[in-house]
Q: What sequence folds into this?
């Protein structure tokens, strides 16, 4: 059956129908999905009946999967490739992934091996809310003036987990030793401010409120004004799509040219439970040199 593609907003996102991901996907179908994904940046498959094995098999068709060794706590007990984004208690303990993604970000941009594709599969969702927003970072770049684009083209920015954990009021890890360990595992990195997508060749703005601390070679104070402008500009409503989840939706997004935000628009009285899988792509960025640290 041919895949039908229905755009979900002017800027970003499309629903793909006529694909059953619970069955093996052939190469022609994979190629069609891949093309739609590159074009629409976030694709939505509804009503999917996916075991972890099937989600993993589908994910592998797009590249090597992360096994989340650096953050082992919320891996699926039998499938290390599946990471649980959940507000349900795990082993009787409060979940530390219940408020994942509460600031705009692109997955793992604070590492030199940022995530290419994220696939998030909804298992439980509150009766209202629990929505996720996405922004088209090609558009964010293309709508800047030529003068600012030329300036940004030459810059790198510091992305760090430390920035994320210290600016995020929802960050739920409280144990200082655990936080110190996380920072040690993820030292700050320099990323291009404008990232050229390796598959489409298009340029996308690659800074985020959640993870970008300052420009390389500049202080935080000097960087602040321009970064704040870019953060606000990138997420203008007309560059975004907001996904209202249904159980059994599977979303796949391209972190090389998008950002996303998990909104705190629901009550934790209700369960929100997602199976997340990430495809590792080509490395991007570099570790900061000692003299570039501040
Ligand atoms: C993620 C993430 C968003 C959400 O899985 O990377 O940010 O809505 N999740 O759960
Ligand atoms: Mn994320």
A:
């Amino acid at each position: 059956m041919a895949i039908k593609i229905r755009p979900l907003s002017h800027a970003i996102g499309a629903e793909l129908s006529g694909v059953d991901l619970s069955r093996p996907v052939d190469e022609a179908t994979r190629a069609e999905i891949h093309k739609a994904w590159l074009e629409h940046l976030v694709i939505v498959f509804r009503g999917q009946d996916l075991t972890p094995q099937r989600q993993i098999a589908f994910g592998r068709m797009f590249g090597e999967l992360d096994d989340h060794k650096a953050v082992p706590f919320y891996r699926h007990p039998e499938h290390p490739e599946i990471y649980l984004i959940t507000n349900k208690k795990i082993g009787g303990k409060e979940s530390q992934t219940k408020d994942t993604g509460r600031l705009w970000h692109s997955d793992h941009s604070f590492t030199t091996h940022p995530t290419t594709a994220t696939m998030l599969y909804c298992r439980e969702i509150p009766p209202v809310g629990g929505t996720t927003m996405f922004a088209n970072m090609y558009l964010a770049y293309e709508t800047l003036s030529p003068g600012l684009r030329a300036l940004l083209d030459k810059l790198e920015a510091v992305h760090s987990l430390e920035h994320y954990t210290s600016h995020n009021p929802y960050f739920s890890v409280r144990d200082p030793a655990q936080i110190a360990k996380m920072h040690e595992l993820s030292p700050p990195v320099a990323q291009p401010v404008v990232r050229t997508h390796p598959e489409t060749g298009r340029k996308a703005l690659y800074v985020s409120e959640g993870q970008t601390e300052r420009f390389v070679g500049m202080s935080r104070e000097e960087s602040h004004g321009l970064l704040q402008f870019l953060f606000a500009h990138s997420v203008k409503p007309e560059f975004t799509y907001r996904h209202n989840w249904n159980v059994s939706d599977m979303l796949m997004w391209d972190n090389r040219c998008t950002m996303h935000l998990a909104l705190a628009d629901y009550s934790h009285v209700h369960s929100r439970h997602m199976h997340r899988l990430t495809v590792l792509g080509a490395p991007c960025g570099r570790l900061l040199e000692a003299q570039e640290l501040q």
Notes: The pocket of N-oxalylglycine (ligand 1) is lined by residues 85, 100-101, 107, 118, 120, 132, 260, 262, 274, 276 (CB under 6 Å). The chain has one domain: 4-287. The radius of gyration is 19 Å.
